[in-house]
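Changelog note: in this version the structure field was regenerated for every chain. One regenerated record is shown below for reference.
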Amino acid sequence: MGIRGRLLALAVGAAFPLVLIGLIDLRKVWTTSREQLNETVEQQAEFAALAFERWVDAQQQPLITIAATAAAEAQLRSPELQESLRLAILPRPHWIDVRVLDASGATIVTQPSNAESLPGALIEGLLSEIQTSRLSAVETDWTSGVEQRALAVAVPIEGGGAVVARVGAQGLDDLFRDIRLPSSALLTILDPQARVVYRSRSMETYLGEDVSNSTLLAALAQERAATIEVASPIDGTQRVYGLGRAGATGYITMVGVPSTSLHEPARRQLARYLLLSVLALLCATGAALFIARGVARPLRRLRGAAQRFGAGNLSTRAEEKGGGDEITQLGVTFNTMAAQIKERETRLTELDRLKSEFVSGVSHELRTPLTTIKMLTHLLLNDGHVTPSQRQNLETIAVQCDRQIDLVLNLLDLSRIESGALNLEPEEVDTREVVRSCLRIERPAAELRGHNIQANLPLELPSVLADRRALRRVLCSLVENAIKYTPAGGRITLGARATDDRIAISVTDTGRGIAPQDIPHVFEKFYRGNLYEATDGSHSPKDAQPGGAPDTEVPGIGLGLYLAQNIIAELGGQISVESVGRGSTFTVHLPPYGAEGNIENEIDGQAEHGSKVAHS
C-alpha cells in the first residue's frame, strides 16, 4: 500500500475512535453537568429558604422584646406597652399592625388602635402552635384577599397570651430582590397549607393556589431539601425544581428552571460536535490523499509529539529543522501552541486551586445547620430543668452559632462590595436615635459578658446624611468588636459630637488595646492583629513583633472593620482608630444632613421625611 493509502487509512483509523471516544466523553460531561445543575438548583432553594427564615427571625425580634415587656407589666393596657407597639411598627414599612393577645385570644392592645380584628381561626391556630411548641408561630392571613395577603408572626408571652404582628407579603419582594437566579428561573414560596404566597415573575391569579396534592411535596417528604423534574402544578410547564424547607416556619421555597433551558444547550453542543467531527474526518481524508512520500517521516514524528502532548506530557515539543516548508511551519506552530497551552494550564491550575479553597471554606460554613442549632439551643435554654453546667455549654453553642451567621453576612457584604453591587440610600438619619438603637441591640451581649455599656449623647445633635440600616450595622459591628476584645467587667461607651463639618460617632472600650504596629492595618481585608495586652497604661506586646502569630483567642476572620470602612466611605465619611495604653476608640465621621452640597437632599428630605423613616 502506498504512502497515500497508508496515511488515508491512518487518518480514518485514528479519527473514528477519537470521534467515538469524544462522543462518550461528551455524554459523561453532559451527565455530570446535569447533576451539577440539579445540585445548583437545590442549593439555590436552600439559600432562599435560609433567607426567608432569617427574614422571619428579623420580624420576631421586636416581638420578643414586646413579649418580655408585656410579661413584666402589671397591667397589660399600660401606656408603656402601647408605646412599645408604636416604636416597633414605626420603622417597619411592611408591618400592617401589631397587637397583644391574652391567653384566651382576646386583643388587649393594638397598634394602630383602629386595626381590624384578626380572624378567630387564625388566632386559634397561632395560639395552638405556640402552646404546642412553646416557640414562635407563622401563618398566612388570606382574609383580606390575595393582593392584601399577610404573614402573621406570633411569639408567646410568659404566663399566657402572645404578641402578633401582621406583615404584608410585599415585604417578600424586598427580601428576594437581591437573590440572583438564572433569567428563566422561578422562585415560589408555599405556606404550611401548601398555598402559593409568593411567586416571582408571575400573574396575581396564581397566588393562593393550593398545591398540596402535587408530586413536588411528595418528593420533599420529610427531607430538608430535594430536587425533582416535573410539570408545574400551577402553570403546567416542565421544570427542574429545587425545594427547601425554611426551618421551623413550615414554609417551603421552590426554585424552578424550565427543562428546555437545561437540555437544549447540551443537545446543540452534541450536534455541533458531531458536525465538526464529520468535517474533521473529511478534511483529514482529503489531506491524506495529497500528502507526498517525502513528508511521511516528519508527520509521524509530529503525530507522536501530538499524542504525547495530548496524553498529558505538556513539555513535549516537535523537532524544528531548518527550512520553510509547510511541515516545518506546522512544527513551529505546534510548539507555539504547546507553550501557550502549558502556560494557560499552569494559570488555570492555580486559579482552580484558589477557587477550590475559597468554595471549600465557604461551603463548610454554609452547610453548618445554623438554624437547627439556634432553635434547639434556645429551646433548651428556656427549659428550666437544665443544670448550670449545661446552661453554660448551651450559651457557648449559641454564641458560636451567631458567629457563623455573622461570617455568612460578612462574606455576602464582601461579595457585594467587590462586585460593585453595594446599594446604599443616603437620607436624613437621627444620630441620637441610631446610636440608641445600636445600644438596645447590643446591650444583652454586653451584659452577658458583665460589661457596663452606656451612651453619652448631648441633648442637641444634628442629623447625619447616611443609609440608616448600613450605619446601624457598622456601629453594631464596632460595639461587637469592643465586647469581644474587652475582658469581662469592662466598660463600653457610645458617644457622638458635632465638629465643624462632621458628626463624629465613637465607640470606646476599656479592652486590652491594639498593638502600635497593627493600627495601620486594622482596616485591611482578612487582617488579624497580633496578641497584645497593655497594663498600667503602658504597652506590653505579647508576641506582637511583625510577622508574629495572629490573635486566635477572639473568633473572627478579619472582615468586620474592612466592611465598615468601605460602607462609611461609600457614604462620604471615614473611620479613625485610637489606642493609647489600655482601651481603644473607633470613630465614624459622617457629613451632617443639610450641609453645603446637600441642600437638595435636605429639601427633599423635609418633604419626604415620613416615607424615608418608614423605609428605614
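Spot check on this record: Residues 410 and 559 are 7 Å apart (CA to CA). Confidence is low (pLDDT under 50) at residues 536-549, 599-616.
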